[in-house]
Amino acid sequence: MLEALFLALPVAVAYGWVMGRNSLRKAQRKQSSILSKHYYKGLNFLLSDEPDKAVDTLMKMISVNNDTVETHIAMGNFFRHRGELDRAIRVHQNLISRDEISSRQEALALVELGTDYLMAGFLERAEGVFLQLLEQTQHFDLAQQKLFNIYQITKEWNKAIDLASASIQITPNDKHLYVLLSHFYCEQAKLLLEDENVDEARSFLKKAIVIDGSQVRAWLDLGRLALESGNYKEAFNYLSEIPKRDLDWLSEAVPLLEEWAAKSDGWDELDKLLEPYWQKCASSYIAKVNIIAKRGENNLAIDTLNTQLQKHPTMRGFKTLLSLYQEDFKESEQAQRSIEHLKSLLDKQIGQRPKYRCHSCGFSGRQLHWLCPSCKTWSSNKPIKGLDGE
């Protein structure tokens, strides 16, 4: 009896293996049939222009686990690239609501969801997502950049200042962060000036200088504020720093310095300030020539300007030269009319040309933007040089 039992054991094992294999195949065929059904159903919805139903069907078809996360992300990105942001959000939200995926994959899904929100204009939701990602080293730089973009759009400069200050503590050698923080202080000062809070605005501008004194924006704004309030010595001290920081911006300081000289009778001091720089840009050599003319030396002014125009011809320089010649032809009515006509033509031409150009993307315009409207880069716009500019 015992021998018969041992003989039957292999048969039982073989039978169990065969039945188990058949059961597995049956389950696989059933699963394949379900997937096939969902696939064709989803495809039918897409072809029938019912994408919402298609999304639901496809999400059911692909179960969420560590092996299929990338498939779900790719599906969401596909909808986003097509401009179907609501569907992209649904797919990526479905991912982060699952417990089956790893923390690394959840972070990847959060990156995509934050991008969806940002593109859809849901800035508050996008901010919440990227604030979560700030806590993860591998996504810190991306989250930081996206948050700066959000705060620039919403003009929440206090939040931008807090983020930039915290980031500097983490990466103190990142010079770009100092540039950003300096501009954020200036933008906050601009908002305060709109509310006529001059003292607090001045405080933020001084902070901008402390954080990055190489940026001329705060020096210009402080000089302008001091000039408006009648603090002429302070105005001169701020404005005289600009050519030392960046000579390209002397053209922006010259009109303010001329206003300062007119109000304080400081033409000699202005002449002394311009001495090292006046031959290097149109605004400064025009200012130098005007100072010479104010002393009554009109012929010397004309000769000086002619020399500079041969080296650095500009339309603004030609217009100034015409004004100087106008002084020599006061007795001739016809000459006066001709010169005025030429000056008006130059004014039209100058008025049609851009004054500033972005050195990053090439964007140009007549209005100064410290943040380029095209490429969203800070400090990339500068005065144009050449015949139309400096």
Brief account:
With 390 residues, this protein is mostly helical. The protein has helices spanning 2-47, 51-61, 69-81, 85-96, 103-120, 123-133, 140-154, 157-170, 175-194, 198-211, 216-228, 232-239, 242-245, 250-264, 267-274, 282-294, 298-311, 315-328, 333-352, and strands at residues 356-358, 364-365, 381-383.
Explain this structure.
The protein has 390 residues and is mostly helical. 73% of the residues lie in helices and 2% in strands. It has 19 helices and three strands. A three-stranded antiparallel beta sheet has the order 2-1-3, with no helix packed on it. A hairpin with a 5-residue loop joins strand 1 (356-358) and strand 2 (364-365). The chain is elongated, with a radius of gyration of 35 Å.
> Residue share in helices?
over 70%
How can the largest sheet be summarized?
A: 3 strands, antiparallel
Sequence of secondary-structure elements: HHHHHHHHHHHHHHHHHHHEEE
Estimated radius of gyration: 35 Å
Q: What is the overall number of helices? A: 19
Quick check: average pLDDT?
A: 84
Uncertain spans: 1-15, 27-49
Keywords:
3-stranded antiparallel beta sheet; 390 residues; mainly alpha; 2% strand; disordered N terminus; single chain
